[in-house]
Amino acid sequence: MDFTTHVINGLGLGSIYALVALGYSMVYGIVQLINFSHGDIIMVGGYSVYLVMSILGLPVWIAAPVAIIVCTLTGVIIERVAYHRLLVHNAARISLLITAMGVSIFLQNVFMLFFGSDPKAMPPLFTSTILKIGSLELASSTILNIITSVIMMSGLQLLVNKTKIGKAMQAASEDTEAAKLMGINTNSVIAITFAVGSALAAVGALLYSNTYPQVRPDMGNLLGLKAFVAAVFGGIGSIPGAMLGGYALGVAESLTKAYISTKLTDAVVFGILIIMLLVKPSGLMGKNKKEKV
Amino acid sequence: MHLLETKDLGIVFGGLQALNELHMVVDDGEIVGLIGPNGAGKTTVFNLLTGVYVPSGGAIHLEGNSILGKKPYQINRIGIARTFQNIRLFKNMTVADNIKVAMNQNMKYKSLTAMLRLPPYWRQEREVDKKARELLRIFDMEDTADQTAANLPYGQQRKLEILRALASQPKLLLLDEPAAGMNPTETKDLMATIRDIRDRFNVAILLIEHDMSLVMNVCERLYVLDYGTLIAQGPPEEIRKNEKVIAAYLGC
Asked: Which of A190, A192, B109, B238 is in the most buried spot, having the most CB atoms within 10 Å?
């Protein structure tokens, strides 16, 4: 029974990783950029919730949409201000990567300037109870995480596979130049991708601050890095891969905490990444890219 | 007024004049060939016409309006669609989706409507699906609609590229070596189909081709490029006898 509980707790944590990993994977799929500022979107979301709930004292049903809107706008503004010109002029990928790190440092320092570097506690978004299912005892936040992530991901699947913007995203990620010549405005496709990725990260931020009710300017660092590991583990560029990678990582972390050592969780997470890169560098669901001859 | 007209069109790459003062016109419903030895600048012309390259000088008009400075997707929407020399399908998408994605700019529903599956979504989706399958029928490919594009045989991938270009309802269709890699029988079929497409879709066609039998049979007029310069133009029977053209091809 203990084992099942740990697995379900792992899925709850993995849901957050999965939601954030999707943003990494979608952006990578379209512009081959590892958006290292994506983790800080969670931090922006966290502080939005803190501002609305702890400072203004407003309820969660106002905080949630505010956080999602703020994160979405932040994502799109980052794309327009920091990456857009580089993308348009076909800059080297390494320039994009360094820019992404710069954006990350910038965001963290701006928030440190305004809010200080100390952690701020905030009330949990939803009152937490222990649910008893059979002989299992689970925190309500765990269940909430899992259900929310499943709903968000089903919505994303519908968006990507059944709508014209989703098909345009797929086309742009396969061949951006050809997509342009078929009448697809790839610039707006890229902006929408950043918006959707950031909105999902905002939901991740909501779940995260519900589970761990405090915010810090550097809270996006490790969380973002782990979500990135999840995206690579699942096969970066693949949406189902990012979900799978997120859940897998969450479960691995939870089991390590339970059976090996709490101190070793991060080592295990990054160890998994190293093993995956050695065994199947394209990730669980990734495809090996054929070189053009 | 010509459908397409270029004046003094040229582009320089580094120190190389890849295309030099090209004057070219294509009228409604014409099938025009663009030929020349390797490296003559034929694909460069296509890249200029579709906005992939920005010309160093000259003008391009479509139905009298300049298209200079327009982005590739905008040029596609106002009526120029193309295929590629090396096939560039969206290989992991289905055959039908490849066509639908090019039709999409004509669809009016919003993404939210689609996610909630409201009636306008179903109506338009059905309509687009029907149109995509109708297009596939031109090449007898309707039974491949739900396959992944990567799984099609080579000849059909080439055909699918043409259909995808047609799906955006162009006024001018640019075909970059449509017969490349096809066997003589397939090439012969293709000739008939190119004429058929022109008649059925009321579209002008500009094509690059190395297969001389196709060019001479299908095209009503030809332009011949060599080292980025126009060396001859006219009906196929004249081009065949043109000494400059013969020299360019034989390298004398």
From this structure: A190
